């Protein structure tokens, strides 16, 4: 694990060891002070979706709208992602959505809150929540959306642009695979070794919204997600 600092002691101490469900984790995450991002944001935005989802999508951090509503992927990038998921033939009911960092990082310009990419210290501080979520999920495919999520799960040397759309072994491709090797077997908290799953990286939907050629960027996102959909069907 990477270093933690006085400013960002990390989320681990806020995770109840006896939290068996995602709902219990979500409640605990509401009080997280693992880094300074909680101070300016409105609320923690935890993952959502069914615990038995076959696909886990991991994004960067909540945006302005998500911060206000307390739900991930409900802003413009989330709308685009939902369309891309549909166009790729993935079943939205089979998807659990979360972010690598659970509070909105921004800077104020006048009255506007402008997105700021989380630093490594925030990704590291928040990673225990991601690990805790995965310990209560059992996905067949993990989809990493963009560089921040890739850093959180795959380490700093992974390049989304180089390896996007490629199916990789999960959790073997993780930076610390040992963090992801146990999955739940039943609701009583029994755990077992994770069955082999796969991971695929692609761009974040907000990168499509920022692209000069949005149609081409969108097609690329859908093409990557289609690889995941076919892998599920296969
Ligand atoms: S960003 Fe993550 S570690 Fe930092 S306060 Fe929020 S939930 Fe805790």
TrEMBL record:
The keyword DNA repair applies. Residues 46-226 form the Uracil-DNA glycosylase-like domain. One of its GO terms (biological process) is DNA repair. GO terms for molecular function: 4 iron, 4 sulfur cluster binding; deaminated base DNA N-glycosylase activity; metal ion binding. Keywords: 4Fe-4S, DNA damage, DNA repair, Hydrolase, Iron, Iron-sulfur, Metal-binding. InterPro entries: UDG_Type-4/5 (IPR051536), Ura-DNA_glyco_family4 (IPR005273), Uracil-DNA_glycosylase-like (IPR005122), Uracil-DNA_glycosylase-like_sf (IPR036895). Gene3D superfamilies: Uracil-DNA glycosylase-like domain (3.40.470.10). Belongs to the uracil-DNA glycosylase (UDG) superfamily. Type 4 (UDGa) family. NCBIfam families: UDG_fam_dom (TIGR03914). This is Type-4 uracil-DNA glycosylase. It comes from Micromonospora lupini str. Lupac 08.
């Amino acid at each position: 694990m990477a270093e933690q600092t006085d400013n960002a002691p990390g989320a681990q101490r806020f995770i109840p060891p006896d939290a068996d469900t995602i709902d219990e984790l979500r409640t605990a995450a509401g009080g997280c002070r693992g880094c300074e991002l909680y101070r300016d944001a409105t609320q923690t935005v935890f993952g959502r979706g069914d615990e038995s989802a076959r696909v886990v999508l991991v994004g960067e951090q909540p945006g302005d709208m998500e911060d206000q509503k307390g739900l991930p992927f409900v802003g413009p990038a989330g709308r685009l992602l939902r369309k891309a998921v549909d166009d790729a033939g993935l079943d939205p009911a089979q998807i659990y959505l979360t972010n690598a960092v659970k509070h909105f990082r921004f800077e104020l310009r006048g009255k506007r809150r402008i997105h700021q990419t989380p630093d490594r210290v925030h990704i590291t501080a928040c990673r225990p929540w991601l690990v805790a979520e995965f310990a209560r999920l059992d996905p067949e495919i993990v989809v990493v959306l963009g560089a921040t999520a890739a850093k959180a799960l795959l380490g700093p040397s992974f390049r989304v642009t180089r390896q996007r759309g490629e199916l990789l072994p999960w959790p073997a491709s993780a930076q610390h695979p040992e963090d992801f090797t146990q999955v739940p077997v039943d609701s009583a908290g029994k755990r077992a070794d994770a069955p082999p799953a796969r991971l695929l990286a692609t761009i974040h939907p907000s990168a499509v919204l920022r692209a000069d050629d949005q149609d081409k960027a969108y097609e690329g996102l859908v093409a990557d997600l289609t690889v995941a959909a076919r892998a599920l069907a296969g």
